[in-house]
Design a protein that fits this description.
single chain; about 300 residues; alpha/beta; Rossmann fold; 8-stranded mixed sheet; 8 helices; 8 strands; about 20% strand
Length: about 300
Amino acid sequence: MFKKHAPLSVLFLIALVALTGCPKKSKKPEVRNKVEKRQPTSRPKTVKKKEAPKETIITKEIEYKAGETSLKGFLAYDSAKKGKRPGVLVVHEWWGHNDYARKRAKMLAKLGYVGFALDMYGEGKNTGHPKDAQKFMMAVMKNIKVGEARFKAALEVLKKQDVTDGEKIAAIGYCFGGAVVLHMARAGFPLKGVASFHGNLKSMKKVKKGGIKAEILVMNGAADPFVKKKSIKAFKKEMKKAGATFKFINYPGAKHAFTNPGATEKGKKFKLPLAYNKEADEKSWAEMKTFFARILK
């Protein structure tokens, strides 16, 4: 027994503790792992690859005939160009209708013309040996009327193409081909102009005054032993007498076949005075471009 009565407030606290028991240690609130907000990873920008320019040069193999002889030609034009455009015949070297003649037809197409590499030997015949080339060439030169018929057949094929302006036709030729286009100009073929690259200048036809309608551009290698100074003098005299419009250019140091990159190798292999001349090649092509831009406009 208590000697003295405890205050009521104290008794109340003792009773409250007895009922509730000792206070428990408060648990720490759960700490959730913070989820860091990550910035969205920036995707690398996709760089569009530049598409290669679409090839617009169309090429076609064309078979045609001159009499009973089957001929194989190669046509090239730019499909990106609209409407009709001038046509240019390409007469091959004495090697025959080969990749070099076709390459020139495609180059003309890129300039905006319709290029047609024709066939003067038949069946697209070509060779890599000078003995065979000599035989093929002489078979045509000895019977130039056959050559004229084959050239005319190619001319008609070119004129009939949907993309060709038949009123504007010219011709270029290399080596043997140069001699051919000069002969066709002398023969009065309906050509706006002809350009001869390292071609023979000798005439196989006597030309009357006013008989040459086509303008003539001759590009010759000054170091070409196949074209003598005597021949150059005779050619110029012939052109003046015929009243022809012509231009003759001699490229210093250039040998025969100076426009053909394969000429040097062939020259060494067969011991012939053939050699590629980059400067003369580029200058003569630029000269032809200026010539055609004027006469075929």
